[in-house]
Here is the input.
Amino acid sequence: MLMKNKSNIILIGFMGSGKTTIGLNLSKTIHYHFIDSDLEIENEIGMSISDYFIKYGENRFRALEKRIIKKLALGFRQVIATGGGIVKNHENIKCLKSSGILIYFNASPKHIYSNLKEDSTRPLLNVDDKYNKIKHLLNERKVLYEKYSDITVDVDGKTIEEITSFIINSLEVGQ
Ligand code: S3P
Here is the structure.
């Protein structure tokens, strides 16, 4: 489906936009290996990302994230669901771009909020006004997601199957 040196499918976008759920479904459908970069990080540090943020802060988390992204980009035929903050570091993008196609999960603040309103595993969203924090952070990052992605998929109101098919069709058309 994809050239060997660019064989990964890399999902980028805000927290709660469905990268992990869709990534898993997509990987099963096209028989690719599924990787969640947050999970890789948690396996390596032996604690949750939330606890790591509390203990060591965001900067150390970003350094760790950069190291893991570098490692993951070396693999082939993987669907990689990335953490929402990877676009903050241009080295991450350079590395991922050389290893695959970047797909942006475009979700509205409302959609994200409805997915995350009961969630407490995203340290950056553990604030009183979660909706406003989502709006503000998304506004800051949207331009980066748009700039770095090869394909955009609008996820609001779509089923897992619809999003998966859209991605597969876009990849096939693009080859
Ligand atoms: C973050 C997103 C999270 C996780 C961490 C920071 C961010 O990943 O990496 O909490 O800065 O947007 P998900 O996008 O998988 O929730």
Summary: The chain has a mean pLDDT of 95.
